[in-house]
Design a protein that fits this description.
The complex is a heterodimer of chains A (518) and B (137). Chain A is mostly helical and 518 residues long. Helix content of chain A is 76%, strand content 2%. Chain B has one domain. Classes of the chains: A mainly alpha (518), B mainly alpha (137).
């Protein structure tokens, strides 16, 4: 096997794990064991991929040995490899966490195979270099997420799922329509080939329409203003392990697609597209955080904060300078780790009190000091308090904004940051500081939980919290990696040359013998 | 369903339909057909049997649990994708070999056939999960 084979591993490994899980669906211990081992292997493979990409540059795999504009190309550049690495880390943390938090009936119905299917979709979306293939991976991911969202069939779950499914189907339809139009206009769906063809596309109006269609499609998945309503309506309903992986990864696939589309494909009319993105970024930040302030339930507050933080990521993309894009990459790294962790912690809180409503819980600072510590670290990081990861992410974005002299968005980012701090303090003072209310139900069974059960719940949260601190302490190397990623994103020719080594031609390369079926 | 005609006929139709599904599956490499439609036909035949003789009897005919079929099908597809990696080719590249047999002449066997077999199993498995769940409701 050569280095390029590693590119397929983040897709093939979840599939292999899923197969193993489906073949052993009857045994619950086997489900749990295979799920965790498969996730650990995925984490290892994604780390290897990230290391290889850092060493050798962009890795390209032509599936089925079909050359670039005709077959499906898988491309691992710095951004893709960072994203799959984070996906691997999150699924590992969530698989371990799910051992003690997902009930056996859900495991029997295929919780673990579905998580692996979801991950296959997510990794595929990060790695593909073909627009239609991206659509297929979106669908794989969505189908898995539909089932995960409704698994268990509780009333609230179904209500949330209806909104989630409807809006995501609409966005998929828009995406598919956009793919049809772009194929009719350019005759190709390979992203590198498209980037070349769109550069010299004669009709600018068509390109603008296309960019807006993709903005709506990806924007809905990423939950940007004004297309985010499905997210806070559904993320608090499923089991915590599911919400955590959704919160960490799903919207980020949308953000990743936005970054890919608006750094590689639609860069001819920056005045129009990126100014619009900047406006959207500002509105997303502000509406998200205002929504969070009105909520009184841990997971609902956190859901609205996802929306608000998507705004920061889009802000860096909209500013479109190397520094701002590096800020976006840094922010994504920070956000995925912290947000997943906050959901996991929220889950432990909910398990203790059997509710996430702030007025019914309290006193955790005394009764669960470890939980309080990891929550404090993650929440302060989310708000952007130095020296944690969020501080450096926001600092980079704000420096990028100042450099580009876009002061309005800088002010918005700072104010939203302050409001985030306020809302994190609200959870802190209500859930952790205030004495528990007299009528609080404390789940005794969770307190007497076995030692391994507790380790499964606390282990991942401690791991993720230490990564948050680690990113803050080692901000230099992470910043360098983000900078390198940003520069690679802005150097479209590197991407195009990696995918189309024979140069920008529309000619048909000679098909070699081994490729032809008899 | 109480129709005696169908109940009797399906006993003879079932093997014929299954055979036809295998024919469609093998034909699909270069002509219309393939694993998907073959799998649909096979599960259609078993669905007819399940409607007339009950889901439990149909489960006995299939022997393997439908979910197991899904898993096995995905495994075949995965193997056909991964196998070329061990020969230094990219993922999913077709590998072909020629087998000379008495009577049939020269046969080309390759990993795409394995992939299609995977599709056949997954389609059959998924459809049977639907059918059995609905009948056992």
């Amino acid at each position: 096997m050569n280095a390029q084979a590693v590119v397929i591993l983040p897709i093939a490994l979840p599939l292999a794990t899923m197969v193993m899980l489906l073949l052993s669906l009857k045994s619950i211990p086997a489900q749990k064991l295979i799920g965790v081992v498969g996730s650990a292997l995925l984490l290892l493979s994604t780390a290897t991929l990230a290391w290889l990409v850092d060493r050798d540059g962009i890795l390209v795999l032509q599936a089925g040995n079909w050359p670039a504009p005709f077959g499906i190309t898988l491309v691992a550049d710095r951004l893709s490899s960072i994203m799959v690495l984070l996906a691997g880390l999150m699924v590992f943390a969530v698989s371990v966490y799910s051992l003690a938090s997902v009930d056996n009936s859900r495991v029997r119905f295929g919780f673990h195979p579905l998580i692996q299917l979801l991950l296959m979709g997510v990794c595929g979306a990060f790695l593909t270099g073909d627009l239609f293939n991206l659509y297929v991976w979106f669908e794989v991911m969505l189908i898995a997420s539909f089932v995960l969202l409704t698994l268990g069939g509780e009333r609230g779950q179904l209500e949330g799922a209806i909104k989630y499914v409807t809006l995501n189907l609409i966005s998929s339809a828009v995406f598919l329509a956009a793919i049809g139009v772009i194929y009719a206009a350019t005759g190709t769906l390979n992203m590198a080939d498209l980037a070349l063809k769109l550069r010299s596309f004669p009709n600018e109006g068509t390109v603008s329409v296309l960019s807006m269609l993709f903005l709506i499609a990806f924007g809905t998945k990423a939950a940007v203003f004004p297309l985010f309503f499905w997210l806070p309506a559904s993320y608090h309903t499923p089991p915590v392990a599911v919400s955590a992986i959704f919160a960490g990864l799903l919207t980020k696939v949308g953000v990743y697609s936005l970054i890919r589309a608006f750094t590689l494909l639609f860069v001819t009319d920056l005045e129009f597209t990126h100014n619009l993105l900047l406006l959207i970024a500002g509105l997303t930040m502000v509406t998200g955080v205002l929504g969070a302030m009105a909520q009184n339930e841990v997971r609902r507050i956190l859901s609205f904060h996802i929306v608000s933080q998507i705004g920061y990521m889009v802000m860096g993309l909209a500013l479109f300078t190397p520094l701002a894009l590096a800020g976006t990459v840094f922010y994504i790294i920070h956000h995925i780790v912290v947000k997943t962790n906050l959901f996991l912690i929220g889950g432990v809180v909910e398990q203790r009190f059997r509710t996430g409503r702030l007025e019914r819980i309290g006193g955790l600072y005394r009764s669960a000091p470890v939980l309080a510590t990891v929550f404090f670290l993650s929440a302060m990081s989310l708000a952007g308090v130095p020296p944690l990861s969020g501080f450096f992410a926001k600092l980079t974005l704000i420096r990028g904004g100042l450099e580009a002299e876009r002061y309005a968005i800088v002010v918005a980012a700072l104010v939203v940051s302050l409001l985030t701090l306020f809302s994190m303090t609200k959870i802190w003072s209500e859930a952790f500081w205030k004495p528990p209310p007299g009528d609080a139900v404390t789940d005794v069974s969770s307190r007497n939980r076995s030692r391994t059960g507790r380790a499964c719940l606390y282990g991942p949260t401690i791991l993720l919290a230490s990564i948050t601190v680690g990113i803050g302490v080692m901000a230099g190397p992470v910043m360098n990696a983000s900078m390198a990623t940003a520069e690679q994103l802005l150097d479209q020719n590197a991407y195009i040359n990696a995918v189309l080594p024979d140069g920008p031609t529309g000619q048909v390369p000679a098909v070699s013998r081994e490729r032809r079926s008899p | 369903m109480d129709s005696v005609i169908l109940k009797t006929a399906i006993r003879f139709l079932l093997p014929l339909l299954l055979l036809a599904s295998v024919f469609l599956f093998l034909r699909g490499h270069n002509e219309p057909g393939g694993g998907f439609v073959g799998g649909l036909l096979a599960s259609g035949a078993i669905a007819l049997y399940a409607m007339t003789h009950g889901a439990a009897a149909a489960r006995q005919v299939v022997r393997l649990p439908p979910r197991f079929l899904i898993g096995a099908g995905l495994l075949f597809a995965l193997v056909s994708g991964v196998a070329p990696l061990f020969f230094g080719r990219p993922f999913l590249t077709g590998l072909w070999t020629k087998i000379t047999t008495e009577g049939l002449g020269e046969l080309h066997i390759g990993t795409p056939l394995l992939f299609d077999l995977g599709v056949y199993c997954v389609v059959t498995g998924v459809t049977l999960v639907f059918v059995f769940s609905l009948l056992e409701e």
